Amino acid sequence: MTQANPDDITLDPKSDDEVVAWLPVAMREYEESRLEAGDSADAADTARAESERRFFPDGRLIDGHQLFTIRLAGEDVGWFWLGPWNGTGVEDWWIYDIRVYDEFQRRGIARIVMQRADGIAREGGAKSLGLNAFAYNVPAITLYESLGYLTASLHMRKDL
Protein backbone atom coordinates (compact mmCIF):
# COMPACT_ATOMS: atom_id res chain seq x y z
CA MET A 1 0.00 0.00 0.00
CA THR A 2 1.32 3.43 -0.96
CA GLN A 3 2.16 5.82 1.86
CA ALA A 4 0.28 9.10 1.87
CA ASN A 5 2.13 12.23 0.80
CA PRO A 6 2.10 14.66 3.75
CA ASP A 7 1.47 17.53 1.33
CA ASP A 8 -1.82 15.86 0.34
CA ILE A 9 -3.14 15.75 3.92
CA THR A 10 -5.17 18.65 5.23
CA LEU A 11 -7.02 19.25 8.48
CA ASP A 12 -10.18 21.19 7.72
CA PRO A 13 -12.18 22.57 10.66
CA LYS A 14 -15.68 21.09 10.79
CA SER A 15 -18.53 23.56 10.41
CA ASP A 16 -21.41 23.54 12.90
CA ASP A 17 -23.52 21.57 10.39
CA GLU A 18 -20.72 19.04 9.91
CA VAL A 19 -20.42 18.63 13.68
CA VAL A 20 -24.15 17.89 13.91
CA ALA A 21 -23.81 15.16 11.26
CA TRP A 22 -20.55 13.80 12.75
CA LEU A 23 -21.57 13.65 16.41
CA PRO A 24 -23.88 10.60 16.36
CA VAL A 25 -21.38 8.66 14.21
CA ALA A 26 -18.43 9.44 16.49
CA MET A 27 -20.39 8.81 19.68
CA ARG A 28 -21.63 5.47 18.34
CA GLU A 29 -18.01 4.47 17.62
CA TYR A 30 -16.98 5.64 21.10
CA GLU A 31 -19.73 3.56 22.69
CA GLU A 32 -18.74 0.52 20.60
CA SER A 33 -15.10 0.95 21.68
CA ARG A 34 -16.18 1.03 25.32
CA LEU A 35 -18.11 -2.21 24.78
CA GLU A 36 -15.12 -3.85 23.10
CA ALA A 37 -12.94 -2.73 26.02
CA GLY A 38 -15.24 -4.57 28.42
CA ASP A 39 -17.81 -2.01 29.57
CA SER A 40 -21.36 -3.20 30.09
CA ALA A 41 -23.96 -1.83 27.69
CA ASP A 42 -25.24 0.50 30.43
CA ALA A 43 -21.75 1.75 31.30
CA ALA A 44 -20.88 2.36 27.63
CA ASP A 45 -24.14 4.24 27.09
CA THR A 46 -23.54 6.33 30.22
CA ALA A 47 -19.98 7.18 29.10
CA ARG A 48 -21.23 8.23 25.67
CA ALA A 49 -24.00 10.40 27.12
CA GLU A 50 -21.57 12.02 29.57
CA SER A 51 -19.11 12.78 26.77
CA GLU A 52 -21.85 14.40 24.70
CA ARG A 53 -23.08 16.45 27.68
CA ARG A 54 -19.58 17.55 28.66
CA PHE A 55 -18.15 18.44 25.25
CA PHE A 56 -21.23 19.12 23.11
CA PRO A 57 -23.74 20.63 25.58
CA ASP A 58 -25.74 22.41 22.87
CA GLY A 59 -24.77 20.13 20.00
CA ARG A 60 -21.70 22.25 19.31
CA LEU A 61 -18.16 21.58 20.49
CA ILE A 62 -17.15 23.57 23.58
CA ASP A 63 -14.89 26.59 23.14
CA GLY A 64 -11.16 25.99 22.91
CA HIS A 65 -11.49 22.58 21.27
CA GLN A 66 -10.77 21.91 17.63
CA LEU A 67 -12.44 19.31 15.44
CA PHE A 68 -11.18 18.60 11.93
CA THR A 69 -12.04 16.55 8.90
CA ILE A 70 -8.89 14.77 7.77
CA ARG A 71 -8.59 14.96 4.00
CA LEU A 72 -6.24 13.16 1.63
CA ALA A 73 -6.05 14.97 -1.71
CA GLY A 74 -9.43 16.53 -0.87
CA GLU A 75 -11.14 13.25 0.06
CA ASP A 76 -12.64 12.83 3.56
CA VAL A 77 -10.57 10.08 5.21
CA GLY A 78 -11.40 10.61 8.89
CA TRP A 79 -11.57 13.05 11.77
CA PHE A 80 -9.39 14.52 14.48
CA TRP A 81 -10.37 16.25 17.76
CA LEU A 82 -8.10 17.90 20.32
CA GLY A 83 -8.20 20.63 22.90
CA PRO A 84 -7.32 21.63 26.44
CA TRP A 85 -7.79 19.00 29.12
CA ASN A 86 -10.93 20.08 30.95
CA GLY A 87 -10.35 21.97 34.17
CA THR A 88 -6.57 22.35 33.91
CA GLY A 89 -6.23 25.52 31.85
CA VAL A 90 -4.48 25.57 28.50
CA GLU A 91 -1.12 24.00 29.40
CA ASP A 92 -2.32 20.38 29.29
CA TRP A 93 -3.97 19.35 26.03
CA TRP A 94 -5.61 16.10 25.05
CA ILE A 95 -6.26 14.24 21.84
CA TYR A 96 -9.86 13.23 22.34
CA ASP A 97 -10.32 11.31 19.11
CA ILE A 98 -8.55 10.41 15.91
CA ARG A 99 -10.16 8.20 13.32
CA VAL A 100 -8.86 7.24 9.91
CA TYR A 101 -11.43 5.22 7.99
CA ASP A 102 -10.50 1.57 7.59
CA GLU A 103 -9.87 1.73 3.85
CA PHE A 104 -7.27 4.50 4.36
CA GLN A 105 -5.39 2.97 7.29
CA ARG A 106 -1.78 1.75 7.13
CA ARG A 107 -0.78 4.66 4.86
CA GLY A 108 0.81 6.92 7.48
CA ILE A 109 -2.11 9.35 7.67
CA ALA A 110 -2.62 9.07 11.44
CA ARG A 111 1.12 9.51 12.02
CA ILE A 112 1.16 12.73 9.99
CA VAL A 113 -1.94 14.06 11.77
CA MET A 114 -0.48 13.18 15.18
CA GLN A 115 2.74 15.00 14.30
CA ARG A 116 0.75 18.07 13.31
CA ALA A 117 -1.13 17.87 16.61
CA ASP A 118 2.04 18.93 18.42
CA GLY A 119 2.11 22.26 16.58
CA ILE A 120 -1.62 22.85 16.96
CA ALA A 121 -1.41 22.24 20.71
CA ARG A 122 1.71 24.43 21.09
CA GLU A 123 -0.06 27.26 19.26
CA GLY A 124 -2.89 26.91 21.78
CA GLY A 125 -0.46 27.27 24.70
CA ALA A 126 0.01 23.59 25.51
CA LYS A 127 3.05 22.30 27.36
CA SER A 128 1.91 18.66 27.17
CA LEU A 129 -0.30 16.52 25.00
CA GLY A 130 -2.04 13.38 26.26
CA LEU A 131 -4.42 10.77 24.96
CA ASN A 132 -6.20 7.57 25.90
CA ALA A 133 -5.98 4.31 24.00
CA PHE A 134 -8.04 1.22 24.60
CA ALA A 135 -5.74 -1.72 25.31
CA TYR A 136 -7.19 -3.82 22.48
CA ASN A 137 -6.05 -1.20 19.93
CA VAL A 138 -2.46 -2.40 19.65
CA PRO A 139 -1.76 -0.68 16.28
CA ALA A 140 -2.71 2.70 17.77
CA ILE A 141 -0.65 2.11 20.91
CA THR A 142 2.34 1.17 18.76
CA LEU A 143 1.93 4.38 16.76
CA TYR A 144 1.64 6.53 19.89
CA GLU A 145 4.70 4.96 21.48
CA SER A 146 6.70 5.54 18.28
CA LEU A 147 5.75 9.23 18.51
CA GLY A 148 7.09 9.53 22.06
CA TYR A 149 3.94 9.02 24.12
CA LEU A 150 4.58 7.24 27.41
CA THR A 151 2.14 5.24 29.51
CA ALA A 152 0.96 7.47 32.35
CA SER A 153 -1.47 5.05 33.96
CA LEU A 154 -2.77 1.55 33.41
CA HIS A 155 -6.35 0.47 34.03
CA MET A 156 -6.77 -3.29 34.35
CA ARG A 157 -9.73 -5.62 34.79
CA LYS A 158 -10.74 -9.25 34.66
CA ASP A 159 -14.03 -10.98 34.18
CA LEU A 160 -15.43 -12.94 37.11
UniProtKB/TrEMBL annotation:
GO MF annotations in UniProt: acyltransferase activity, transferring groups other than amino-acyl groups
Domain N-acetyltransferase: 25-160
Domain of life: Bacteria
CDD domains listed in its UniProt record: NAT_SF (cd04301)
UniProt-listed Pfam families: Acetyltransf_1
PROSITE patterns for the chain: GNAT
Descriptive protein name: N-acetyltransferase domain-containing protein
Organism expressing this protein natively: Agromyces aureus
Taxonomic lineage from the root: Bacteria, Bacillati, Actinomycetota, Actinomycetes, Micrococcales
